């Protein structure tokens, strides 16, 4: 055995798990909860000027009332493309045109649609858990590699425990985020 110090880069593991949480929050923001929100349009991209452009880069998004989102399209020639992108986005919203302003009335969610959205949220959360577990696996692989290079049994146990505690913490965060989102969706 050598006295060489082995250290696992837990900052990198934590940064990658933070990335999984950020992706989950973005996916949750795109789920409709019956209330209007500008963030629900974040995943929508428009074919603009020969490339795919986020909708917030072709117009101003406003929420003038709880059940209405408006998009003031800056370039009049882009109104049709923006409307098409919204229709094809799968949000289930029917855009209404008023000159360069596109109005998106947010319909009331029925019970069946709410349950469907909670299942979608659960799937997003499971994808985040898988991402966290993949980062955990990478961390455990780092520990195994260090073990083959002479890491002591005590250090190996310490780093395995550290990686597992980090994983457990992020899994709890995913579960809490899912619980909150599902409660928000089911709220009438």
TrEMBL record:
Coiled-coil annotated residue ranges, if any: none
Keywords attached to this entry: Cytoplasm, Protein biosynthesis
SUPFAM superfamilies named among the record's database cross-references: Ribosome recycling factor, RRF
Ribosome recycling factor domain segment(s): 24-186
Gene3D superfamilies: 3.30.1360.40, Ribosome-recycling factor (1.10.132.20)
Localization, UniProt: Cytoplasm
Source organism superkingdom: Bacteria
Known function: Responsible for the release of ribosomes from messenger RNA at the termination of protein biosynthesis. May increase the efficiency of translation by recycling ribosomes from one round of translation to another.
Family to which this protein belongs: Belongs to the RRF family.
Protein name: Ribosome-recycling factor
Lineage, broadest ranks: Bacteria, Pseudomonadati, Pseudomonadota, Alphaproteobacteria, Rhodobacterales
